[in-house]
Design brief:
This protein is an alpha+beta fold. It folds into two domains: about 90 residues, Nucleic acid-binding proteins (OB fold (Dihydrolipoamide Acetyltransferase, E2P)); about 300 residues, 2-Layer Sandwich (BirA Bifunctional Protein, domain 2), CATH 3.30.930.10. A hairpin with a 2-residue loop joins strand 14 and strand 15. Helix 5 crosses helix 14. The radius of gyration is 26 Å and the shape is elongated. The two termini are about 40 Å apart. Bound molecules: 4-amino-1,4-dioxobutan-2-aminium adenosine-5'-monophosphate (4AD). 4-amino-1,4-dioxobutan-2-aminium adenosine-5'-monophosphate binds next to strand 11, strand 17, strand 18 and helix 14. The site of 4-amino-1,4-dioxobutan-2-aminium adenosine-5'-monophosphate has 23 residues, from strand 11, strand 17, strand 18 and helix 14. Homodimer.
Length: about 450
């Protein structure tokens, strides 16, 4: 057996996929495809074909393919599915690098009046047709980049000794505050949809040392911005014996790794999206750090005179701060009062906590939130009470500080904001297959 396991199909009509054509130059192949677009001039028809793995141009020359195949090609409607047979040609002029000299077409299903035509459509129309919009070249490129980030994430954490642990989705405790929770009935009890797996990951870190999770996250935020989803995916690493600064090192190396992986493995997708990659090329650890105090000062210098110490930053503030740096920038040491209850106060200045938000360049905003966690039982209990949280609900979480408590830190990276930044897509709605937004739960 080779390095990569192969799927063996016997008797399947489809012999190869578009992603494999480069291994079949000069050969006749059959591929199951959909018609993405077409144009014809005189005795030649150009078919833009897709099969899910990629796109390729099929060239149907009347004199070579014959009258019947040529007429079928010319009259085919957009999104018709068929088996195409042809010879693979390398062609530098073709937008896809390869061409298929078509010799046969076997229609599977004719599509009638496909709603998304090559002309421009409005966003709401495209969102209503998200189940079809996903087929477009642009959406294909974004999803491939998302997939590469997920792949690189597993690779990074697996090769650095982390264990993947899956926290629950239905929970009885709320790490990030109680206002943005989705409530649900859990038989006779009240439950919530997870808004972070962090507390469970802390338990896991005490059992496995270094852990990470990757799962859906739900926030009933009434925010209608280009950065907010109601349901999004978060990667949450948690590390025992890691202090604040150790966690920042992991974060900058992890983010550099995923950026490099996308640059190396998604060249065509980035090109398709028209992404200027010059800024991404500069993303390598270490990242600059700025304290909350200095960020306030910087904002005052930049004309945001109204912002006062103790207030949280909004999107315009984050964008203004990020503009001063070429790479993602950490804003550290926020006031304790505007951060969750579990963050470790700075021993030298207890009014600020050992935390950092990582702000992406080019206006994409915060992609990571993280901190060192309180490891002292009494302090954690006091914070739970200060925040008016139920001591009973957090009993198990307090237990972690009763039995061999250690310094530990962790963070959460929002996948969709990261995909938006790396692929250069303006709005997070295009970075998840079926976005859940303030006014949208369909399709
Ligand atoms: O800063 P947040 O709220 O951090 C936590 O939930 C921590 N418990 C994570 C941890 O330490 N384990 O969220 C983390 C990240 C944000 O930086 C952002 O990228 C993303 O999650 N995020 C959202 N993404 C899309 N839509 C939303 N409504 C988001 N809210 C947060």
């Amino acid at each position: 057996m080779g390095d990569k396991p192969e799927i063996v199909l016997e008797g399947n009509t489809v012999k190869i996929t578009i992603s494999e054509v480069h291994q079949h130059i000069g050969e006749e192949v059959t591929i199951g495809v959909w018609l993405n677009n077409k144009r014809s001039s005189g005795k030649i028809a150009f078919l833009e074909l897709r099969d899910g793995t990629g796109f390729i141009q099929g060239v149907v020359v009347k004199n070579e393919a014959g009258e019947e195949v040529f007429q079928t090609a010319k009259s085919m409607s957009q999104e018709t599915s068929f088996y195409v047979t042809g010879t693979v040609r390398e062609d530098a002029r073709s937008p896809f690098g390869y061409e298929l000299q078509v010799t046969g077409i076997e229609i599977i299903h004719e599509a009638v009046d496909y709603p998304i035509t090559p002309k421009a459509h409005g966003t709401e129309f495209l969102m209503d047709h998200r189940h079809l919009w996903l087929r477009s070249r642009r959406q294909h490129a974004v999803m491939k980049i998302r997939n590469e980030i997920i792949r690189a994430t597993y690779e990074f954490f697996n090769t650095h000794g982390f264990t993947k642990i899956d926290p629950p989705i239905l929970t009885g405790s709320a790490p990030e505050g109680t206002t943005e929770l989705f409530h649900t009935k859990y038989f006779d009890e009240e439950a919530y949809l997870s808004q972070s797996g962090q507390l469970y990951m802390e338990a896991a870190a005490m059992a496995f040392g270094k852990v990470f999770s990757f799962g859906p996250t739900f926030r009933a935020e009434k925010s209608k911005t280009r950065r907010h989803l109601i349901e999004f995916w978060m990667i949450e690493p948690e590390m025992a014996f890691y202090e604040h600064e150790d966690s920042l090192k992991v974060q900058e190396q992890y983010v550099s790794y995923i950026v490099r992986s996308v640059l190396e493995n998604c060249k065509l997708d980035l090109h398709r999206l028209g992404r200027d990659t010059s800024k991404l090329e500069q993303v390598s650890a270490p990242f600059p750090r700025i304290t909350y105090d200095d960020a306030i000062e910087l904002l005052h210098e930049k004309g945001f005179e109204d912002i006062k110490w103790g207030e949280d930053f909004g999107a315009p503030h984050e964008t203004a701060i990020a503009e001063s740096f070429d790479k993602p920038v950490f804003i550290t040491h926020y006031p304790a009062a505007i951060k969750p209850f579990y963050m470790q106060p700075d021993a030298k200045r207890p009014e600020v906590v050992l935390c950092a938000d990582l702000i992406a360049p080019e206006g994409y905003g915060e992609i990571i939130g993280g901190s060192e966690r309180i490891n002292d039982y009494d302090l954690l209990l006091k914070r739970i009470k200060d925040f008016n949280l139920s001591e009973e609900a957090y009993k198990w979480y307090l237990d972690l500080r009763k039995y061999g408590s250690v310094p530990h830190s962790g963070f959460g990276l929002g996948l969709e904001r990261t995909v938006a930044w790396i692929s250069g897509v303006e709005h997070v709605r295009e970075t998840i297959p079926f976005p859940r937004l303030l006014n949208r739960i369909y399709p």
